[in-house]
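Hi all, long-time lurker, first post. I run a small reading group and we've been trying to get comfortable going from sequence to structure in the token notation. Rather than ask abstract questions, I figured I'd post a concrete chain and ask someone more experienced to write out its structure so we can walk through it together at our next meeting. Sequence below, copied exactly:
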Amino acid sequence: MVLFLRKLNGEHTMQILKSHLLAFSALLPVAALSMTVHAEYTGPTAEGDHTLAQILANPVDDQPVTLSGYLVKKLSYETYVFSDGTDEIQVELEQEDFPPQPFDENTRILIMGEVEVDHDKPVQIEIERLTIK
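-- Answer (accepted) --
Happy to help. Here is the structure in token form:
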């Protein structure tokens, strides 16, 4: 750019700089809009048509589920016990899926995930998203 400006006469250089500045200032609002952060819906949600007891009575592998309840116990690094009041199930919850705010066994949560049916293990839910209610 410096070499380019040196080759041009002063007046022509100013015209080019003005046109570049004008183009840049026109693109700036477009760039700002493209970086907008989208908020998340935090109102009431449909909590699914099934209870945990109903899901466990007829588990379907990879069935998407949304349940409201509590993580009542930690079993290992990423394995917990979840209860919705009708039954309990082991859930897999990875560290990156935790909400930013802390919670305990008395905090009502909403989990969204998939049923995991493995004939060698108890039925589990792999949590894909957890929100505090």
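A couple of things your group might point at:
The mean pLDDT is 82.
The chain has two domains: 2-34, 52-132.
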